[in-house]
Write a structure and sequence with these properties.
The complex is a heterodimer of chains A (521) and B (188). Chain A contains eleven helices and 20 strands. With 521 residues, chain A is of the alpha/beta class. Chain A has a six-stranded mixed sheet. In chain A, strands 4-12-13-14-11-17 form a six-stranded antiparallel sheet, with helices on one face. The longest helix of chain A has 21 residues. Classes of the chains: A alpha/beta (521), B mainly alpha (188).
Chain lengths: 521, 188
Amino acid sequence: MTGRTVAIVGSGVVGTAIAYLLALRGHRVDVFEKGPAYPYPHTRQFEDRFFYGYDDPAYLPADGLQGLTLSGDYHRDLNDERRMVVGGAATHWGAIALRMRPPDFRTRALHGYGDDWPIAYDDLEPYYCRAEALLGVSGTDADNPFAPSRSRPYPLPPFELSWSDRVLGSRLAARGITLHTTPQATTRLAYGDRPACQNFGACDVCPIGARYSPNYDLLRAVATGRCMLHPGASVRRIVTDRPDRARALVVREIDGATDTEHGADVIVVAGGAIENARLLLLSARDRLPDGVSLGGRVGENLMFHHLWTTRLHYAEAFYPGDIGRFTGQSYQFIDPPGRGRHGAVKLEFSSNIVPPPQRPIDEVATGAEIVDILRPTLMQRMITVHSECAPDSRRTVTLSEARDRFGDPYAHVHYELTDFDRETYQFGRGLVERVAAATGAERAEFEPIESVYSGGHHMGTCRMGLGPDDSVVDSFGAVHGVPNLFIAGGSAFVSPGAVNPTLTMVALAIRTADYIAAHLL
Amino acid sequence: MLVTRRRFLGIGLAAAAAWGGWRVVTLLRMPPPEPVLGGEPVGSLAPSTIAVLVAAAEAVAGYPIDPVHYETYYRWRAEHLRGYRALYERFAQEADRGAHRLAGRPFAAASSVVRREILARGPRARAPKTAWDRLRVQLVDYDWPAFDRFVLGETIGLFARTDAWVALGYRGWPGMPRGLDRYRRFPG
């Protein structure tokens, strides 16, 4: 321990991983989170929802704190996807913890689209193992012939396929499609002091901590006595006093009248792809005369995980919803022939019961009507196409005209769908038609391409690369030319792959933490 | 020109009738009032009020229910959210009054047919179909839009999240610790 200090912007799964690992090694860490405190385990939130039907406004960020403007082809509520509380969006995540495959890091070289990462799968593989250990991932590759190689087994055994997934899986197997278990950061067995999952089916507010939440490790970090958490503290700028050094954060308490400067030897920005870009753009705009020029690439190549869900109708009852949310999925099309004309696709059977949208439940008067509305869902399964997009100049984060409560511009997100995305959509739709036919579905209700959903997975805007001409940070997340300023998490992704990105974000975060500890502290 | 007393009274009565008619027409044209919760203080519920609320839940559900989580729900909202305790108490009084009128007994002791007949005032108040229904909401059932949304509607929502799953054939509902064995077997 050198007495040098680290300041982290954002308390989500990435900021927390770095804070925890550095605090564990004896370093002094401050974590700034603009959102409010969020109790852990999430028992209270669980009880609010399931017992009392209550959505506590105490867990919402203060007015005028969370906002953005949006243009282009994305029509979902992006603000709703960014959960600003202590613990960040992963307080509510589905906990699917997947590895990207080696070709995902080299799409330009192998398939002629996107750009290649400056690191390869093999560079990241040991960190994937550590990320799985940190989050407590339950899984197996024994039933997944398409899984990438691994040097260590999963920390916990898998959640077996549900009854209905097994039925569907056997029909798919007869048509050459593999359905396998889903690795997830939920405890199949007790893990450390986290109890085994009891299948409350309320994963996003898991009341017992079986599903990993960043708040678990935040509490452990704080318990070391070396990590201080600052909820309700908005970081407005990064101060740079030399061309090659970040000196401090400008912080405003949510109800404060003045800013304070928080000095640190190392600064890590881990606020999500959109807010990270916004903070860097604000800091670059208002920099001191000798401050860091952050280059012109910040905010470029925003990438969303592209999700489309299809409702499959069957003549038989499958009783979805009997287990959490996910057991069965397929990696089979994650590196498909034809990749390059379109992107990769992961298929995922959701166990959610989703009432049909024709009639809202709050318009009915009797239980019999409710049961009549829900009964058809017994004979439905939702299947989601998770698909890859490619980095593209038509997807950006810039500064908006709209301003937050302190007068700072919000982020403006411009997101267009491309021909590549349309081809990928059609490819995914064709796969779902195959699945529907193989499993005996009578009908499939596809979402239109315009309904694309990011799943709350936002990537790019500060991507990694070899130098400032093509990127913002190096492979460890250090801003080119500013070795003590790091941008961590999905921001640094070069391309997104088709799988849920959180495990990759955490693997990168661990790699960043190792680098900081070895070279800067 | 002098107006005779009789003529004066006649004019007055005609004006009153016209105003009354206009008022009735206005009321008939008005949509039902948007239900809002009052700001009355929170507090605990009497057992008799809970009994009426659970009896209403049984009637609305029309399926077997586990009363415990309904009681928990009503108690918590009365004790934590302004307006609910007073609304629940008014609802219980109104339901009991209706049951005494129809069946000569308290709501909780009335048959499910009687309970449903009383509770049907809720949907009628939310979406009145006839002029008479609309007038009734304005003049008599003015509390029922709020009863419909904050008592009956929320009860239906709670049923949809819980006992409806059992009615559909599941062994439990999300929110219950269902263990990791049964999900691998056929639920029925």
